[in-house]
Design goal:
Layout (H helix, E strand, L loop, with lengths): L1 E4 L4 E5 L34 E12 L4 E8 L5 E7 H12 L8 H11 L2 E12 L2 E10 L2 E7 L1 H11 L3 E4 H7 L2
Parallel strand pairs: 6-9
Antiparallel strand pairs: 1-2, 2-3, 3-4, 3-9, 4-5, 6-7, 7-8
Helix pairs in contact: 1-3, 2-3
Length: about 180
Amino acid sequence: MAALTGSAARFIIMEERPSRTHKQTGKRTAEGGCGGPAIRAPGETTAVPVQMELTRIIINENNEQQIIFLKEVEGDRTFPIVIGIFEATSIDRRVKGLPVPRPLTHDLLANTIELLSGELQDIFISELRDHTYFAKLRIRHNGEIVEVDSRPSDAIAVAVTVDVPIYVAEDIIDEVGH
């Protein structure tokens, strides 16, 4: 990790993360995850999921808006997302393996899913509408996949906590990715 200190702001930049495999399956794509057929919710067009991985976090402690970058697992496209300082620091702590004395909000959600006999399969950033991204937590419960609406920053924080795949709809990457 590199830290750059200036007179006006302190930036924390996490360097590229190496590729990993899914801890539950040992594969890049989780069984029952988004890596299979396209996903369609009622009233939505077909969204083709692209598996991404968190590669960079930029934290500016003097700004409310932070930036994380997702990179295509099997390609070169990147996808930036502006998130809040709380979510950015929570994600950063998870990536670095830093302990927390008490469960944070994202730990609470992950623990609740598990205690209610659910299993987070993956997260899916599914839509961009009016400059706002929409995401879904995809939870396996009683043999079915339940989708829960989420802010992308919270979904990514939970995905990093539980170590599940992150997917983004290809049309979003085409529109805002690099």
